[in-house]
Amino acid sequence: MGIRFYRGIRLGKLARLNVSKSGLGLSLGVRGLRVSSGPSGTFLTLGLPGTGLSYRKKVGQGGGIGWPNFKGIFGRDDEPKEKAPKLIAAAEAEPVPPKPEHEMTPAEKRLVEGLAYYRQNKIKEALDVFLSLSREELGAAVLAAAILANTDTNAPTAGRLLERVLQADEEGEFPTPLMQAYLRDLEIQIEVTPSVTVSTPIDVISVSLLLVEMYQAQEKMDEALGLLEELDEVTEGKFEVITLSLCELYAIAGLWDGIIDRAQTVQEADDDVTLEIMLFYGRALQEKGLDEAAISVFGKALRRTKDRNPALLHEARYWRAWSYERTGKRQRASEDYQKLFAEAPGFRDVAAKLGV
Fold first, then answer.
1. Label partner for 307 (CA 20 to 30 A): which of 63, 108, 256, 269?
2. 18: which strand partners?
3. Measured between alpha carbons, how far is 263 from 257 in angstroms, rounded to an integer?
4. Which fold has domain 6-62+219-354?
5. CA quadruple 179, 180, 181, 185: dihedral positive or negative?
6. Is the pTM of this model over 0.85?
7. Who wins on pLDDT, 280 or 28?
8. Side-by-side strand order, sheet with 33-38
9. What is the DSSP string of 155-224?
10. Does the pLDDT value for residue 294 go beyond 80?
């Protein structure tokens, strides 16, 4: 408990062996051509160096994970997302003082113009500017994608923009000098799960998470999980927001061991991100029949309640009571259900559980 075993072993210049509790993975390739294999399957990535163009596809037999309708790690039918979640570049941040106009490049002038439109809430004008710059300036491509992702019809375009940005990152072309000068104080809001939204600077992690959410919105679940596992490998599991997003996708796929492997390192609910990771962890343990361990996890999740999402705390209390019931601890289950009923009488079937 609390220890995650993970190791990357280089096998010459072209290969890397990834070892974790959940199994072995292998990455092979050179610039522009890579094959990655992990728990979700094998993916082929083709890119044309210098062009920003890339193509990613799941290969091998089976056609990918059989993604079921999500009954939910929390035991409910989650409504499918009708469009990409709200991905918004923060308009409040002020850019660095601009240079005198005569010292700016044409691209720099246009980027400053687009940011000014955005701060004035002239979203259409800002989008037009960012799209016109998207091929020559990667920062503009990210901002255009963030705006497009809020529409029903343009999420695929946003996805292609972000795929090109990630390809440029592999080639060492991201972030750009203009991003470092003008976008360093901007943040993007990402709805990681229906209960947790985070704000993050514009970097390779936020771009990847944006793309994962767009893949989910387009029901490209294999691509979403493949990208997340690759990001988790590169960052060596250090970012809890990536862990949370992985836990959600593993739950949808019913990969309980994957949740347990990644979530077990979180021992305290320091914020809503870690709180929800612990909820996924406890529910995965319940799915494996380990109710005593689940009770312990939910108990830790409930230690800190200040500034936490009440709905997540209600989930933790409900599922702890559920495990108390399954292990014959009916008095303790009743105490949790009664406290939950006092806070949220309409929550799930808690009233029926108490016979009221």
1. 256
2. 8, 25
3. 10
4. 1.25.40
5. positive
6. no
7. 280
8. 6-11, 15-20, 23-30, 33-38, 41-48, 53-59
9. HHHHHHHHHHHHHHHHTT--S-HHHHHHSTT-EEEEEEETTEEEEEESSHHHHHHHHHHHHHHTT-HHHH
10. yes
